[in-house]
Design a protein that fits this description.
- The protein is mainly alpha-helical.
- It is built from 26 helices and 5 strands.
- Helix 4 packs antiparallel against helix 8 and helix 13 runs parallel beside helix 26.
- The N terminus is likely disordered.
């Protein structure tokens, strides 16, 4: 038995497909390509391009409905094929056959980008409100119809958009794949052994301070060894992102990202202002932890995720089987539907929890069909591991609530995509705190505050870093050293004296794959976290009426903007006060943590 063989589940992908060379996968793959070509033909038959200004015609309505139905059908089938390939690669990036097939699929689907551009231009040229009034299909997809009007105003000429789509395969998409493949296969020389980076990063929570520091030093050395190609990738992606946003007429990349995430700039500014005012509170938490863990006034980076050594703090069993029971029971306390759903994911092997070579770091949930998901995690037996599992199960529950929506109706922005995950994570945390003795409560609060600090303080550091990179990349390429310095500056501005300024993580820009997949991926996580806390507060005030509305809200996250959905619960997300109230929940946890830690001496 190798050191990676542990009693943790691997997911079962056979309900999707059993192998790449089976008739079922071959037929499904071919059908997606056929549907793509059929859709191209339909676009040409219906002349799907921007219409001259004029009254809405029956022909326009028929064309819109035909294309919408075809897109929904194609994307539904594509989801299953693409998910199967991506999930295989996520747990083994060395799977050459799946990598080759996914590359083939990407190439074959390039026309979809152009078709999507044409459809947006077509919808944007129509009278949106008249279309919604006269077509049941348009009424069901009203949010997308109205949004198309906005995006149509920010399009390049069709031939230029088609060129951008083709060039992305050797541009930003290629750089993103480089990061994913390079980092998932990266090994670290640690204690004389070649160890996967995903395993090394889990040592940040090791009980031994010496192990944590050694792993941190080995990790930085390994990132430095691959920093040159990753710096090229970062420069290429951010240049392309900024240039395209500018050419398409957005004021800046951030305006585009706010629109993509269905929030206003006022909402983003209010949230970040509240977050910045909370930084002194987080530093209070970090300093208290530093005195306990590091015997210092500030934490070195390698102790940021260190466990607390307090007698009785690990009284609970957080093994995988215990995690299954605990989550099932406490999801039941919210609703039988949620509890039954969690048990279904365990029973049907929807989760891959075992760290192993070739498997990517982190955790995610992927929709693979109506109401069906797969969850990837590198589980460790701690409350943090349970919390992460509950978080990803929240995403799966969200997918369940979207099951009866079409693909186009269920396209949820990242801001709202975190709603259910944070809610489920909070259910589990509150349940654990209620039953815990003081020492264990301290450990649970520590796990919670670790996460809160990451999602508020660290996320804002990443936001500042990316904002600086995009601005400076206007002038020229940035070197590895410059990227590291920008990262350190962002960490010092946010963590302040809570962390040892001489022991930070200059290569966090290399670690986080989101930088390479999208722009400003970071703030939606803070939004989701604080919005989820706000919703949980609503639940505690009136559980019955909340339950009646909550699943409906989750089912509509692709059918309305965040402001509108929040208003249904009486929440004003453009007000700094709303975000401050959510952060007050975290401040209260910091107060409890510091008090309990002082009691433990």
């Amino acid at each position: 038995m190798s050191k990676y063989d542990v009693l943790l589940p691997r997911w079962d992908l056979s309900p999707l497909f059993t192998e790449l060379d089976t008739p079922g996968f071959t037929a499904a793959f071919a059908d997606v390509l056929t549907q793509t070509k059929t859709l191209e033909t339909l676009f040409n038959e219906k002349n799907i391009i921007a219409r001259p200004s004029g009254p809405l015609t029956d022909e326009d309505i028929a064309a819109y409905e035909a294309i919408t139905k075809a897109f929904n059908a194609l994307y539904s089938d594509l989801r299953r094929v693409r998910a199967y390939l991506s999930l295989r690669i996520a747990t083994d990036s060395r799977d050459a056959a799946a990598q080759a097939k996914l590359s083939e699929l990407r190439g074959a689907l390039i026309p979809l980008s152009s078709l999507g551009t044409r459809f947006t231009a077509f919808m944007g040229s129509l009278d949106s409100e008249a279309l919604i009034a006269k077509s049941e299909v348009a009424a069901a997809h009203a949010y997308g119809v109205r949004e198309a009007k906005v995006y149509a105003e920010h399009q390049l000429p069709l031939e230029q958009e088609e060129l951008v789509a083709h060039l992305s395969l050797s541009g930003s998409s290629a750089w993103a794949r480089l990061h994913s493949d390079l980092t998932s296969q990266l090994t670290v020389d640690f204690n004389g052994e070649s160890t996967p980076m995903s395993v090394i990063r889990t040592l940040a929570t090791d009980e031994s301070a010496e192990t944590r520091k050694s792993a941190y030093e080995a990790e930085l050395k390994a990132w430095k060894g691959v920093a040159l190609p990753l710096a090229f990738a970062m420069n290429g992606i951010k240049h392309e992102t900024r240039l395209l946003a500018e050419r398409r007429g957005w004021s800046d990349v951030l305006e585009l990202c706010c629109n993509n995430n269905s929030i206003t700039r006022a909402t983003l500014d209010a949230m970040r202002a509240a977050a910045e005012k909370s930084f002194p509170d987080f530093r209070r938490y970090l300093k208290a932890k530093a005195r306990k863990v590091s015997n210092a006034e500030a934490l070195p980076w390698w102790d940021l995720l260190a466990p607390l050594s307090v007698e009785g703090s690990e009284a609970s069993d957080w093994s995988w089987s215990a995690a299954e029971r605990f989550i099932g029971e406490n999801f039941d306390a919210y609703s039988q539907k949620m509890g039954d759903f969690a048990r279904k994911t365990f029973a049907e092997s929807w989760i891959d929890a075992e760290p192993r070579p070739g498997k990517r770091d982190g955790a995610f949930c992927s929709s693979v069909g109506p109401g069906e998901s797969r969850i990837m995690q590198n589980y460790r037996p701690s409350f943090d591991g349970v919390s992460t599992l509950a978080h990803e199960l929240g995403h799966a529950y969200h997918n369940l609530c979207l099951k009866d929506r079409t693909i186009l109706q269920s396209s949820t922005p990242m801001t709202l995509a975190e709603t259910a995950s944070i809610f489920c994570e909070t259910i589990v945390k509150h349940a654990a705190l209620k039953s815990a003795e003081p020492a264990e409560r301290l450990a649970i609060l520590e796990a919670s505050l670790q996460n809160s600090c990451q999602v508020v303080v660290d996320i804002d550091s990443r936001f500042r870093f990316e904002q600086a990179v995009i601005e400076k990349r206007k002038e020229r390429d940035l070197s590895e050293g410059e990227l590291c310095e920008l990262m350190l500056t962002a960490q010092r501005e946010t963590y302040g004296d809570g962390l040892d300024s001489d022991a930070l993580h200059p290569y966090m820009w290399a670690v986080k794959g989101h930088y390479y997949g999208s722009a400003f991926y970071n703030f939606p996580y803070m939004f989701g976290f604080l919005f989820g806390l706000g919703l949980y507060a609503q639940y505690e005030q009136d559980p019955e009426s909340f339950r009646a509305a909550y699943d409906d809200l989750l089912s509509q996250t692709g059918m309305a903007n965040a402001t509108e959905l929040a208003q249904r619960f009486g929440l004003d997300i453009e007000s700094e006060a709303f975000w401050s109230a959510s952060l007050d929940v975290v401040r209260a946890e910091i107060d409890q943590f510091v008090s309990l830690l002082e009691d433990k001496g």
